[in-house]
Design a protein that fits this description.
single chain; about 240 residues; alpha+beta; 2 domains; 5-stranded mixed beta sheet; about 25% strand; Metallo-depent_PP-like; membrane
């Protein structure tokens, strides 16, 4: 299991970030690569959706990717090569759908093709695969013992989920690592909307209250001025 202190620090540090993602739909893709010599490297890059092409095998032939043991994609892999282990979504797998542009480029797709999926599993041979887009989330075990984690989406009706994957070295003298995965449910988007609505309502009431108060004060000041001027004129008339 993920260490409790690390999990608390993760939630504390990134709570605001995931609220922003849930509200504004900020898209990120994180590639975590652990080399065969256990050298850890991580890179966080923003990638537009049209760059996730199903058969762009040039991305898989890079030496750095060949040595990677962890693979994260925005699109799910083809599910025909494994069995579903656990997941909150009980429906059938969606059929592979791809929308092409006028230049035969893939603009959008529901999952990777079977050929690309098999290429990743056979050539890259990742231990863990992380992906997630508009999914309910599940854990999927492929036939080559690769475990694929589809992270529950943070946006919309999916309810603000995230996940923490920890890589730790229990003994500094031994080149051996332990890996832990933990689902981290954050505040749901409906509660964010409710909080925004309540805050906006109080803000509107505050503005209306101050406007009414300013009108009352203005009317009260004018009434005092008129009463004082009338009283002074009456006193002057009595003296005459």
């Amino acid at each position: 299991m993920v260490q409790r202190q690390l999990l608390q620090a993760y939630r504390r540090e990134y709570q605001l970030l995931f609220v922003a993602i849930a509200c504004f739909g900020v898209g990120r893709s994180l590639l975590i690569a652990v080399h065969r010599r256990h050298r850890v490297c991580a890179a966080c890059v923003a990638l537009p959706k049209h760059l996730f092409r199903a058969d762009a095998r040039a991305h898989h032939t890079d030496k750095h990717h060949r040595q990677s043991r962890y693979w994260l994609r925005q699109r799910s892999k083809h599910p025909a090569s494994g069995t579903l282990r656990r997941g909150v979504w009980k429906g059938q797998f969606k059929v592979h759908v791809a929308h092409h542009t006028g230049e035969s480029m893939i603009r959008e797709q529901s999952m990777l093709t079977k050929e690309t999926t098999q290429y990743i599993l056979d050539e890259i041979k990742p231990i863990y695969v992380f992906n997630g887009h508009d999914h309910d989330g599940c854990i999927y075990k492929h036939n080559n013992h690769t475990i694929e984690y589809t992270i529950r989406s943070m946006m919309g009706e999916f309810g603000g989920y995230s996940a923490l994957f920890e890589i730790r070295k229990p003994n500094p003298d031994i080149e051996n690592f332990e890996y832990s995965f933990k689902i981290c449910p954050f505040i749901q988007t409906k509660f964010i909307n409710i909080s925004f609505g309540v805050t906006g309502g109080w803000l509107v009431l505050f503005i209306i209250y101050n406007l009414i108060l300013s009108f009352i004060r203005c009317y009260h000041n004018q009434f005092k001025k008129s009463s004082s001027s009338s009283s002074s004129s009456n006193q002057k008339y009595k003296k005459d």
